[in-house]
Amino acid sequence: MKLDDLRQSKNIEDRRGQPSSGINYRQASGGSNLLFSLLFSRLGWKGKLVLILVFLLFGGMSGLGNLLPGSTSYNQYQSSQVTTSGTNISDQDAIFMSKVLGSTEDFWTQEFANNGYTYDAPTLVFYSDQTQTGCGIGSSQAGPFYCSADQKIYIDTTFYQELSNRYNAAGDFAMAYVIAHEVGHHVQNELGILGAYHQKRAKLSDKEGNALNVRLELQADYYAGAWAKYVEGQGLLEVGDIEEAMNAAHAVGDDTLQQEAYGRTVPDSFTHGTSAQRKKWFDLGYTHGDLAHGDTFSVANP
Ligand SMILES: [Zn+2]
């Protein structure tokens, strides 16, 4: 991605290297951490990459599904001294991400105005290890996530480092896609979709709730695709960027993950959509580049 001439967003909160405010936490469920460790130890590098990407994007999930007020994932913690493991996002990476955020602001301000709305941009927070959020304690184990209560996107430094190490130069647009997806959740919040989703989900069974969650995630992928069309229109994309995002979208499909992990798929437990669905909705966003065609909730088969 060619970002040289882009402005940096001012909506950045840099908590890199800050001590973790003396907080330590135990995840209430403990489930995802355990699952992560188990899977991680069993997978080859390819599987590990997929898992990291999954956690990067599912981080958005954590923000939506587990970290929101009324939810309990991060609410059990005890006081103790925690030292930070250092700052792993370089200044260069931080500038890259703030430029990506700046371009999402320009795009969504314009697209909201086209529809008669006003866009209030989210804040992007860089942090190390763990940090206080409006949705409880954010931890590097959650990956990037969006908290609707404080309207902030949290990016932890170690996951960024993992991503750029393993993806090498090809990683820049994959990271941009991750940010655009999280911004997509903020767009849903701005439009009232997120609030409606939580109200509706509370009344559903796990299976129905998962199906609704898939639609929410696919819409965030659509919005990320819409932003990609905008930056392409500005001549900022390089050869391979869209493929990179599409591959990332594909790699984090629930079926791909489960196939890697268990050798079989369990459709009822899908919460993010299949690889094909995620690619499809990113591509639809990339084709239309607007809010109007991104209704993943009304279509029969998203
Ligand atoms: Zn998400």
TrEMBL record:
<keyword id="KW-0472">Membrane</keyword>
<feature type="compositionally biased region" description="Basic and acidic residues">
    <location>
        <begin position="1"/>
        <end position="17"/>
    </location>
</feature>
<keyword id="KW-1133">Transmembrane helix</keyword>
<dbReference type="GO" id="GO:0016020">
    <property type="term" value="C:membrane"/>
</dbReference>
<keyword id="KW-0812">Transmembrane</keyword>
<dbReference type="Pfam" id="PF04228">
    <property type="entry name" value="Zn_peptidase"/>
</dbReference>
<feature type="transmembrane region" description="Helical">
    <location>
        <begin position="49"/>
        <end position="68"/>
    </location>
</feature>
<dbReference type="InterPro" id="IPR007343">
    <property type="entry name" value="Uncharacterised_pept_Zn_put"/>
</dbReference>
<feature type="region of interest" description="Disordered">
    <location>
        <begin position="1"/>
        <end position="23"/>
    </location>
</feature>
<protein>
    <submittedName>
        <fullName>Zinc metallopeptidase</fullName>
    </submittedName>
</protein>
